[in-house]
Amino acid sequence: RVSRAVLGGGLSISTLPNNMTRVVEDSGKYYTWRIFGPENQRAENLWIDMNDVRHGQVRVHGILSNSYKQAVPVALSFDFPFYGHYLRQITIATGGFIFTGDITHRMLTATQYIAPLMANFDPSYSKESTVQYLDNGEVFVVQWEHVRIPGKESVGGFTFQVALYKTGTITFSYRDIPLSVDVISSAEHPVKAGLSDAFMVMSPSSQSQMIYEYHRVEIDVTKITNYSAVEFTPLPTCLLHDSCELCLSASQTSGCSWCHVLQRCSDGMDRHRQEWLDYDFPDVKTDSSTKSVGLANTGVIAGLASALVLLLALILVSLYVSYHPSAVSPLYLIQRRKSYWPSLKFQKQESGYTEVEGGGHEKDSIVEAGPC
Description:
By secondary structure, the protein is α+β, with helices and mostly antiparallel strands. Helix content is 18%, strand content 33%. The chain crosses the membrane at residues 300-321.
């Protein structure tokens, strides 16, 4: 467990396999959310009836509806704001979630997801199990219908959906939850509900990319029941501002800085973090006081010192490897370098997904919409 300061703020992170990390704290910085029980009318109103033609054309995906641990990319008809970033493509997984990352990999369940109910679902078990979606330009809905969990098929099928609104609002709605979610085993697949986002940065020591989850919303799965719902409302982020003046003066956001080179407003904690680091905050307009200048100079000096120490360490490691080619330490370093992102070699216990594109056979007489 490590504590690391980022841009003046404290982040508590815990190391996961393959250099992946997750933030264990939670805050209302990016979203506010409410959970509605089955007795609340709001829960009923949030459910989108996929049989109602007024919502748009529903597409049953042939591959996802007949597969286990599969994921398929689907293009959106509108820009969907997620943690302040605009997405035009998402990846639907059979395991009850949407992956939102730019680079797909076998461990999709780790971070960068929108998960109404992530679990070990197998839509291929029954002909009545389907994964379907619709996109009417205002909302994108994915529904997992009558999907079952291997080894628990007798309890019945789960039916639930997620809706991504053009405004950035996200809703989870549940119809059939035949088994209490907190007793579902996570041995073969993680079980969770909520949101997550991450950024990738270059490791200066190995020149490899690493991914960091900077925020997660975890929903209490004991609250997921028949006819319940969750509604997420996005909060303004620094990325919203497109000018220096708005970036520094907007009252609805805090901790924002403006980079003239990138023409971007940021607090450094978003998917563009690598660019933010590459430019080392050039021409950032913040407080013009002497104190701010002094802190900036201190940061530059510290950065140069760190670079010199790193360079010296690399030279020493290179010399050691040259004179001790069969030693344990250098072999370990070489092996670790091979396992970095994006060519991660995941442990056997990690949930592996196979990405597929378009096509697929039909389930009964339900016509699939074609390539995604």
